Hints:
mainly alpha, 5 helices
Amino acid sequence: MEFANRLYQLRSQRSLTQIELGERLGLSGVSIANYEAGRRMPSYDILIAVASFFNVSIDYLVGRTDTPYDIS
């Protein structure tokens, strides 16, 4: 469920609607709503697209770290 919360927070910080984010990622607003509600989990390709769009690591998106950026 961490992905759902992180996606919502990142989207809200940019003042994007679910539809706007979906359009930018080539998805529907319904898909974004399902991810944020925890009803669905994205594929690996979509995780990469979300991480790239928000400039955060996949580990951050899925809750493996609380550091949004890779600081290696």
